[in-house]
Design goal:
Number of domains: 4
Number of helices: 29
Structural class: alpha/beta
Number of strands: 14
Helix content: 55-70%
Largest sheet: 8 strands, mixed
Distance between the termini: 74 Å
Shape: elongated
Radius of gyration: 31 Å
CATH topology of the largest domain: Rossmann fold
CATH superfamily of the largest domain: Vaccinia Virus protein VP39
CATH class of the largest domain: Alpha Beta
Strand content: 5-15%
Length: about 850
């Protein structure tokens, strides 16, 4: 197989050089005639002796490749763990993630640039590589221990606006730059053990591909096993163990593998031609990571935004890069014109980007797929994997092939291999940083409110790919203008120029045919093909998420985030949203200050406005489009909450806001997105609930939404058990449909709860609570008894059911892995029936006369099976 592949690559090389090879060779001969012999001799004299090992290194190359596979595996595990740890500190907003990604990749870039400048080639490359891996392992351990302590310093100095952004950058730099500098130096370090010959440059590409192959293993190992079964600590220990093993092997091999070098290798680098290649590979990095940002966003709409979906997307992207790098390395070994092939790769990327844009907007979303038909989530994972491959594989292979071709285009005999690889890698990484930040922070939000953000982003990517191809190919066609050339060379040049012009003329056509993301995909996501009968009212792509509003003929409206319904005007959703607000506001004797986590349709936040004692309400929302645009479609239901003078909207990650604010509140209510969505589990952890508890004023309440649908028993138990660990006096309140499960509200407070039913009924009868009474009646609660009858149990009643529950902690984020296994199932009725089996009517919780208590018992029975009643 390998022989066939090499033969195929040789044919490609010979064919690709057929036109330009003879052209450039002829011109080279003509130029050589015009250059004095003494000049050529002088240039040869200053060229340094080539860097060569003391003995043949070919037998060691497969072993070195295996070491780099392990290095890539550990690096990806670190990346996933560090991102989760730091998001707990600096938040998950687009600004925070941009700072985090920029710091991580910036450290890799600086490491690749700094290594050849500060580490002499006299040191054995494998010994240096081993030390780098050992150092990365040590810093990985320190990061695991030290990042949580950053909270204390960070919270003490946090502010708002630009100072806050700068402080987040400082925090990320302090935590990530030391280990990422070492990671970025590993590829230049190990590359010094090969020569800058075509064969050696090819192996540099193989090292790069091996590192990517290891990264694939790391992403799948971390996403599907280590973090799902264990936690961040265990995942880090595995990565550290791999690093220590790789580092030790590198040092061991260095003792037996002889090496010699010359310090003069830095003097004779030829940078006259390759400078444009650095720009080309930087633009390739720009389109590569920029496309990953856009495509991950669109694919997560279609596949569901679970942690497993993101692991699958990342793995497919990396697999394509690895295969492309391997093929590019083979071609780089045989082709005499790597620059031309690099340019053709960039030109082909314009078509590949269009292919993916078409697949993600006009093809794949409309495949006749119903994910709820499968009883096994692993079957859906296989389907998701194939859809990802079908959509994004062509582009990833081309990006992967670009790196070894760029190395081959830049390489000159006698170069320091570390400097060669470090320069190309740094340029590619710098372009990747710019691409991801520019597209996510500027291009998509710029026209996102009109639903054209990802459309414009993909058009820009096609244009940049065409520009990159032009920069690579044009100098080859016009490098000797003004000099006499033979007629055959001239016709060959004209032919290639016309072909390139024709291809580039198709680029505007491709850009024009990139369409906007379908509104139905933003609204219904993976369930697009089984949801009909609604019409689009609004579609927008914000900085953090994509949102939509749809309507039905009967007047019901739905608010969608990231491909799922987040809120609606349907009775069951309205009842839940009002319960989250009215229940704590009525139980609290004088709730003046309220914090609402997640604006949604604004119904929960608006529920507090009708309570006369309210003085100030803070809404914390991560996506600006939701309060500014979406809430206006539900202004009748939310009492036009965003325009009320008592309401202040904060655009930030809710956890980050609670972590850094110095305010206390009488009520904190939380209605985040479903816990199976990646990142949402941070708002269900024990540490987050403890943060909320610390920011409660005396006598304050916390309410938390828990969905029973699109979930499973283990995930629901984890949410309830985690909440009850922080609020042992907490209670459950059900929002059921005709006695069947739908979702529940958790109510927590520091003190033991005691409810005077008659006093509450009297309060609702007062004139100043007339609007409160009407608001409750609109969702089916005609009295205090109706509202309190939704009581569904408390901590000590549920102890038997929750005995083996997995607590969701910052260090494991267990909930997103549990919930992510069943986002397509609807077992809410069965889960609710189990809750009803454990609940008991609490005589010590409610107080009232005999008639009131009898009515309350009847209402209690109506909201459940009552199988556990005495």
């Amino acid at each position: 197989m390998r022989t066939c592949l090499l033969s195929f690559c040789e044919q490609i090389g010979s064919l690709s050089g057929a036109g330009l090879t003879s052209l450039e060779d002829t011109e080279a001969q003509e130029v050589q005639k015009s250059v004095p012999v003494k000049t050529i001799a002088r240039a040869a004299a200053v060229r340094p002796a080539p860097l060569v090992p003391a003995r043949e290194v070919r037998p060691l190359r497969p072993l070195l490749l295996a070491l780099f596979v392990g290095s890539g595996c550990a690096a990806l595990i670190y990346e996933i763990v560090w991102f989760q740890l730091l998001q707990l500190v600096i938040g998950s907003s687009a600004i925070s993630l941009a700072v985090l990604l920029g710091t991580f990749m910036g450290g890799m870039c600086l490491g690749s640039l700094a290594f050849p400048r500060f580490v002499s080639p006299r040191h054995h490359p494998l010994a240096v590589y081993g030390l780098l891996e050992l150092g990365t392992g040590v810093l990985g351990l320190l990061a695991l221990v030290g990042i949580p302590y950053v909270n204390y310093l960070y919270v003490a100095g946090i502010g708002h606006g630009m100072p806050s952004v700068m402080l987040r950058a400082v925090v990320c730099a302090a935590c990530l730059l030391p280990p990422t500098l070492l990671m970025g130096a590993t590829l230049p370090a190990i590359s010094r053990y090969v020569q800058t010959t075509p064969d050696g440059v090819s192996w540099m590409g193989w090292f790069y591909g091996g590192n990517i192959a290891g990264a694939v293993c790391g992403s799948l190992l971390a996403g599907f096993y280590l973090l799902r079964v264990y936690d961040m600590s265990v995942a880090t220990y595995v990565a550290v163990g791999i690093d220590f093993l790789v580092g030790a092997l590198g040092l061991l091999i260095a003792k037996f593998a002889a090496y010699s070098s010359s310090e003069s290798d830095r003097a004779g680098l030829d940078l006259s031609g390759p400078r444009m290649i650095y720009i080309v590979i930087a633009l390739s990095g720009f389109t590569g990571l920029g496309a990953e940002v856009v495509w991950t966003r669109l694919l997560s709409l279609m596949l569901g935004g679970t942690v497993y979906t993101f692991s699958i997307i990342l793995a497919v992207f990396l697999i394509g890069l690895g295969i492309g790098s391997s093929v590019g390395s083979l071609i780089a070994r045989t082709t005499p014109r790597p620059r031309m092939l690099l340019g053709l790769c960039q030109l082909a990327l314009a078509g590949a980007i269009f292919w993916t844009a078409y697949m993600l907007t006009e093809s794949l979303p409309f495949w006749p797929i119903n994910p709820s038909l499968s009883w096994n989530i692993w079957f859906n994972f296989q389907l998701d994997l194939m859809r990802c491959v079908w959509a994004i594989f062509p582009g990833t292979v081309l990006w992967g092939a670009s790196f070894p071709l760029a190395l081959a285009a830049v390489a000159r005999r006698g170069q320091d291999a570390g400097r060669l690889v470090g320069g190309v890698y740094a340029a590619n990484t710098l372009g990747a940083i710019l691409g991801s930040v520019l597209l996510s922070m500027v291009v998509i939000p710029w026209r996102g409110p009109e639903g054209h953000g990802t459309q414009d982003a993909q058009r820009l990517l096609i244009a940049v790919a065409a520009l990159s191809a032009t920069l690579a190919l044009a100098p080859m066609l016009f490098s000797s203008l003004g000099r006499p050339v033979r007629k055959r060379v001239l016709f060959s040049r004209l032919g290639w120029t016309c072909a390139l012009a024709v291809l580039l003329c198709t680029v505007p056509i491709l850009m024009f045919h990139v369409v906007e993301v379908p509104g139905e995909l933003v609204a219904w996501g993976r369930n697009l093909m089984i949801n009909t009968g609604t019409h689009m009212l609004y579609v927008g792509e914000g900085m953090n998420s994509s949102v939509a509003v749809t309507g039905q003929k009967d007047g019901d409206r739905y608010f969608h985030v990231a491909g799922k319904v987040e809120a609606s005007s349907e009775p069951q959703d309205m009842r839940l949203q009002r319960m989250l607000g009215h229940l704590p506001a009525l139980l609290h004797p004088d709730a003046r200050r309220v914090l609402v986590v997640g604006c949604g349709a604004g119904v929960t936040a608006g529920s507090f406005l009708v309570h006369p004692q309210l003085e100030h309400e803070t809404i914390c929302e991560i996506e600006p489009l939701i309060p500014r645009v979406v809430s206006t479609y539900f202004s009748a239901e939310n009492y036009d909450v965003v325009h009320d003078p008592r309401v202040h909207v904060v655009f930030d990650d809710a956890r980050h806001y609670v972590l850094t604010t110095d305010q206390t509140y009488d009520i904190i209510t939380s209605d985040p997105i479903n816990p199976w969505v990646k990142g949402a589990a941070t708002l269900y952890t024990r540490e987050y609930f403890e943060l909320c508890k610390r920011h409660l004023a005396p006598g304050g309440f916390v309410t938390q939404w828990v969905p029973l649908y699109e979930s499973n028993s283990d995930a629901v138990k984890s949410q309830i058990a985690t909440f009850f660990q922080v609020f042992p006096n907490g209670t459950i309140w059900s929002n059921d449909q005709s006695g069947k499960g739908y979702d529940i509200v958790l109510l927590g407070q520091s003190e033991v709860l005691k409810i005077d039913v008659e006093a509450l009924a009297e309060r609702l009868g007062r004139d100043d609570h007339a609007r409160v009474k009407r608001s409750l009646k609109q969702v089916g609660f005609t009295s205090a008894v109706d509202l309190l009858g939704t009581y569904g149990g408390r901590s000590r009643d549920m102890a038997g059911w929750l005995a083996n529950s997995q607590i969701n902690r910052d260090r494991n984020l267990r909930l997103q892995y549990l919930a992510g296994m069943d986002p397509n199932t609807y077992n809410e009725a069965a889960i609710y029936n189990v809750i009803c089996d454990y609940r008991k009517f609490p005589d010590d919780l409610f107080a009232g006369n005999a008639i009131t208590m009898a009515a309350l018992r009847a209402s209690f029975i109506k909201h459940g099976s009552g199988s556990a009643l005495p």
